[in-house]
Amino acid sequence: MAGEEPTVKPRVLVSDPLPSEALTALRGLAEIDQVQGLTPQQLAEKVRPYQALIVRSASRVTREVIEAAENLQVIGRAGVGVDNIDVEAATQRGILVVNSPGGNTISAAEHTMALLLAAARMIPQAHASLTAGQWDRKTFTGLELYQKTLGVVGLGRIGREVATRAAAFAMRVVAFDPFLSADYARDRGIEALPLEELLALSDYVTIHVPLSQETRNLLSAERLGKMRKGAVLVNCARGGIVDEAALYEALQSGQLAAAGLDVFASEPPEGSPLLGLKNIVVTPHLAASTHEAQNRVAIDVAEQIAEVFRGNPPRTAVNIPYLRPEVMSALRPFLHLAEQMGKLAASLAQGPVRRVRLQYRGGLADSEVNYLTKAALRGILSVSHCEVVNFVNAILVANERGIEVAESTSRTSATYSNLIELEVDSEKGARRLGGAVFDEQARVIELDHYAISLVPEGIKLITWQDDTPGVVGKVGTLLGDADVNIAEMQVGRSTRRGRAVMVMALDEGPEDGVVERIRALQGIEDARLVVL
Prior knowledge:
Radius of gyration: 25 Å
CATH class of the largest domain: Alpha Beta
Shape: globular
Distance between the termini: 41 Å
């Protein structure tokens, strides 16, 4: 029963270094073995009798390791990222994967403020000058934070902590977050702004979003050029969010006064010209590297594993909780479909999402549809959300962001034996999707009431247009001129020569400006590029 101590002590293998106090929650509840430095092959040989495995970043938990783990119930990652764990393989085997996404929040927020101050006051440069025997006070005249504007890009856990600390410096805080409503921000003393407006207004800008297709080079040369002249930029999030070549030019030209970087597109950043600049402060990915944070994430994961052994759900499961193999086998393609539908709907939404409505029709009505709802929310929130969203916290995060979620079922379906209907409302309108599975292949079969057949993977160009001769050809010509290959194309329409939606699957994404030129064509109402 849930909450009870197991009668036979489970065994836990710890394959990376952890502080002794981190395992307190498991002592007396489980037998603990600590063996470090194992290769994936050695780990596969060792893990067979264990019910739990705890790793940091050194151990690689491959599919071979998971398939060899006959008794494994849970894998704990003492940290945030799970790149070293084959989560898909674990999910297929019904093995929970848990991590600690909030354990380094304070450390990352404090490091952000440290870089902000160090860059503004040129502290490392002044230190180097003084230790070299110079007494140079004029060169190192700095900038104040007092009553300046701080722009926070991404208002998740870390972004909110940074905003709290900035308020203590009497800074005005503005923020950009695609899921940020004006009311949510206002309640926290923060003004919500579009990204371009934030960049133009802010004296200091700090980044707290994950690296994804949507955020790669988010601060491009164009956007860096729109920043307030003499501003200071700090990035403690992920390398690749800032175009480093463009940042170099902005710092060298004086467009930006200074920058503080803890992360780089390539780590270590060997040969990066940024390291030769005098108006930059750099650290080697240290934001989460405090004794407290390292202990905190390890303790958190150990406590979650202890709860799993007691039959209780963990706080931060990366994958879905255990389902019987036959249930998982039936639901797996629909879980993927629901998540991809969520990503597509959120990518097409205009403004922050306010309401999400899901209806499950046909045989799905009798299944575990709450997992499908969580999968759809994961997809919706993953598009631009700055926090880790999983099957445990998806509904909670949606509620925190003021998103209303409604779920219903119907055993009748006019056309399909199983059908998912998803409607997403934003400030400027709604998007409606229908999805089904054919021969284990997920497909979106409806978009805004137009019938289509879309595999929700890869790069898609979606246009809303007049169903008249020449419109399709104009779009194809523009893509051809941009050297973009069209892999597949289809048009959904309700009436002849009325309104239509066109979906093109592209082999590669077009360069900047191509989608804008398509949107400007006569007969095109809107055009959106989506990466799934």
